[in-house]
Input
Amino acid sequence: MVTNVTNLSRSGLYDWMAQRVSAVVLALYTLFLLGYLVFNPGLGYEEWRGLFSQNWMRIFSLLTLVALSAHAWVGMWTISTDYLTPMALGKWATTVRFLFQAVCGLAMFVFFVWGVQILWGI
Amino acid sequence: MSVNIAVNSKRPVNLDLRTIKLPVTAWTSIAHRISGIIMFIAIAFMLWLLDVSLDSESGFEQAQSILQHPLAKLVTWGVLSALLYHLIAGVRHLVMDAGVGEGLESGKRGSQVVIVISVIVIVLLGVWIW
Output
């Protein structure tokens, strides 16, 4: 069977690129948010809420959610195709791998929708 | 087509990771994957914390008091350690994508640098949390 039918873009090269581009977005968001928390030790609710009410922060956060969804999918897909193999699991490998990927995809979709609700619920 | 010669040769190939002595590059690679899985599971925890903290004044205080709990501090340290290790090892990947540090020796050095920087950052992170 065609075993790479489940990858993100049906192309290893595009997946590779998506993983790199999303990684840069995730790194920037991580460093920004950690830096914000480190340099605001006495952070209060109004300030915290104010940050996430800013339009640029909503865009930045939504971009990060999209990047996270792509990045997590490519990563979990890579891991599942490397380790959930017939060598490790025998003849049920394809079924187990597909179910694992389905759970990952569903979880990531739930995380994405939840994240959007948080960002736009403010 | 040197690649095909290697693939088609009759030499025995062992890809069973459990029976191979792993070099330092393999350990940083596996740690990169494990830290990724840890974060994937932790997304739920982080989103929940963000949700509660942004919901209301009392929610913010609730999130703060949760993070003061010793066990929560340990989990936070673990998750953020995974995040920062993943980030540092990821930067090494981007550097290698640019063609730097891809060789056998430079690759090993790159892995060692990732480990040293990560240990320093994770210790500093612990100091910040406690």
In short: The first helix of chain B runs from residue 2 to 8.
